[in-house]
């Protein structure tokens, strides 16, 4: 995926401008920046969940997004959720089985998503990435609620994905053990007209 001169806004206010990056096969890029600096806004825009102010994005149809909202169907079981997404993305049973295995969800496959713990829900949300068949994973704080073992499962899934020619754009404060990963500090792209979080407090 290639992003050039992208400007993004939240609530009508420009947040970042001039953002550009290229993600090729096997590439990972970590977004950094303090709370409110625009990481979520950038990720949501790249994923097509909100329109950009301006700029170019090539390869957006290759993106699978996992954000804060888990997007699970709470009345469906773990397996049914994954099967549902497999049908949406045109993949099949093999991907569902691989997703259950990668996130150690087999023992929970008959449990309704609504009855999962926070960390289990997060594991299911991340397992969904595997059934999309999409190469570019765009992830917003994917390890929130995960215990150490589950962070390890996630890191393994990411390494495997990158090894198979996938790509990753991720906002995370956790070291995923991926070795040297390029970092994009979003504060370098703060839109000039943006009201700083500190100023907002006094409005
Ligand atoms: N629904 C909204 N309406 C208006 N402004 C918003 C809305 N959501 C977020 N913002 C503002 O947009 C700016 C960027 O927020 P964003 O969530 O992209 O930051 P972030 O870097 O992901 O932060 P965090 O690390 O806290 O998740 C912030 O100043 C935030 O207050």
Automatic annotation (TrEMBL):
Domain ABC transporter: residue ranges: 1-203
Keywords: ATP-binding, Cytochrome c-type biogenesis, Membrane, Nucleotide-binding, Translocase, Transport
Organism superkingdom: Bacteria
Entry-linked InterPro entries: AAA+_ATPase, ABC_transporter-like_ATP-bd, ABC_transporter-like_CS, ABC_transptr_haem_export_CcmA, P-loop_NTPase
GO biological process terms, semicolon-separated: cytochrome complex assembly
UniProt keyword annotation of Translocase present: yes
Gene Ontology molecular function: ATP binding; ATP hydrolysis activity; transmembrane transporter activity
Stored SUPFAM superfamilies: P-loop containing nucleoside triphosphate hydrolases
PANTHER family: ABC TRANSPORTER I FAMILY MEMBER 1
Protein name listed in UniProt: Cytochrome C biogenesis protein CcmA
Organism of origin: Roseivivax halodurans JCM 10272
């Amino acid at each position: 995926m290639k992003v050039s001169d992208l400007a993004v806004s939240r609530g009508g206010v420009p947040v970042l401008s001039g953002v550009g990056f290229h993600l090729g096969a096997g590439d990972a890029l970590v977004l950094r920046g303090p709370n409110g600096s625009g990481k979520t806004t950038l990720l949501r825009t790249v994923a097509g969940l909100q329109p950009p102010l301006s700029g170019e994005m090539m390869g957006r149809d290759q993106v699978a997004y996992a954000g804060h909202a888990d997007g699970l169907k709470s009345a469906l079981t773990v397996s049914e959720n994954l099967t549902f997404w497999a049908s949406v993305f045109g993949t099949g049973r093999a991907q569902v089985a691989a997703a259950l295995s990668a996130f150690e969800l087999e023992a929970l496959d008959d449990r309704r998503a609504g009855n999962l713990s926070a960390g289990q829900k997060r594991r299911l949300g991340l397992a969904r990435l595997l059934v999309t068949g999409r190469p570019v994973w765009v992830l917003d704080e994917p390890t929130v609620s995960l215990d150490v073992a589950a962070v390890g499962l996630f890191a393994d899934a990411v390494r495997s994905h990158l090894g198979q020619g996938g790509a990753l754009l991720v906002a995370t404060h956790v070291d995923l053990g991926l070795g040297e990963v390029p970092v994009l500090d979003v504060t370098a792209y703060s839109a000039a007209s943006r009201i700083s979080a500190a100023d907002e407090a006094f409005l």
